[in-house]
Amino acid sequence: DEAWNSRKESYLPECRKARHILVRIDATNANEEEAKKKARDRIGELRARIAGGEAFAAVAREASEDQNTASKGGELGCFAAGKLAKPNTAKKVDEAVFALEEGKLSDIIETDHGAHLIKLDEIVKGDDVEKLGKQEAALDLYLRLESERLAAEGGKQILAAVQGGKSLDEALQAHFDAVLPEKAKEAFAKGKAVGGGDDPKEEGADDDSDAPLDAWTDPSRPQVATSDPFSAGAPPFAQVQNPTDATKLIFELAGPGKVPDDLIKLYDGYAVVQLKERKPVEQKTWDEERDQFMNALRRAKQRDALVAYMLRLRELYAKEVVVNIKLTDDKAEGQDGSSQ
């Protein structure tokens, strides 16, 4: 009920369930008109494929450049008139959606972001609006809890592999090998990952068959990274939920190559940490690298403070949020990996 109450103002009678595909304008092209034409032409090609019988969701997953919706088949959710509106961008998409009949494709729409193609899946009426809203709220809650569980489970598997002697890279690769279907691995090996190269689906395959390939290309996938050097009084890296405890845990490790007995909780997942190097601090080194250390510490604290602030706002004002649909590719920052 709480999840539904926080969003029910978004689900008004006659709300539209729609999908979109975005092809961005190439900002590196000095000829703006040429760049716009290329985006329009590409959307035109995709529209022809869909009009020829291909599923909109499958084409969106393959070709859309909106990273927030592509993996969901271009889903924009169900929204009332004006709830998508942003100057010169989503307002045009909003207007196009409300001019469409159910099941129809839009013409090519140009915004500041690029060229769009819209499909109206359904006009939700009457009591069906609340029913849909509660279903989607329940699904989002389930997915959030299940994602948390799976992230912890995967992190523990990787941690156990590292404790057993594997490197972080080997442990992560073994995790991918265990969770991804063979078909997805074969397609990736041939250079047919989603968003690049040929369509990895075989003829007659289900529209969702390319979804597992996102695990190889999704920017938020688990990755191995090396932190900046940090002191005992500094956060080890960004996004750590409890920096003080995390730093203490790392500084208690016996030496390089060692890993803690548990995962480190992040705001958006978990990190498996392995000590890479420990250096004694010398006055000469401190004098030479003081600015680097202080800047890294300042950046980490600013990031963590911003994340904590946004989480508090979400808790306090969730019920006042009407809609949270983005047509940009902004992504929350986060990283997993090894530490110095």
Task: Write a short abstract of this structure.
The chain has 340 residues and is an alpha+beta fold. Helix content is 43%, strand content 10%.
Distance between the termini: 44 Å
Q: Please tell me the CATH architecture of the domain at 2-125 by its name.
A: Roll
Structural class: alpha+beta
CATH topology of the domain at 2-125: Chitinase A, domain 3
Give the total of beta strands. 6
Structure in words:
It is a single chain. This protein is α+β, with helices and mostly antiparallel strands and 340 residues long. Among the domains are: 124 residues, Roll (Chitinase A, domain 3), CATH 3.10.50; 76 residues, no CATH class. 43% of the residues lie in helices and 10% in strands. The protein has a four-stranded antiparallel β-sheet, with helices on both faces. A hairpin with a 2-residue loop joins strand 5 and strand 6. The radius of gyration is 23 Å and the shape is elongated. The C terminus is likely disordered.
Secondary-structure blueprint of this entry?
Elements: H1 2-5, E1 15-24, H2 32-51, H3 56-63, E2 75-79, H4 90-98, E3 109-110, E4 114-124, H5 127-163, H6 168-179, H7 182-189, H8 214-217, H9 243-251, E5 264-266, E6 269-271, H10 283-317
Antiparallel strand pairs: 1-2, 1-4, 3-4, 5-6
Helix pairs in contact: 5-6
Distinctive features:
340 residues; alpha+beta; Chitinase A, domain 3; four-stranded antiparallel beta sheet; 10 helices; 6 strands; elongated; disordered C terminus
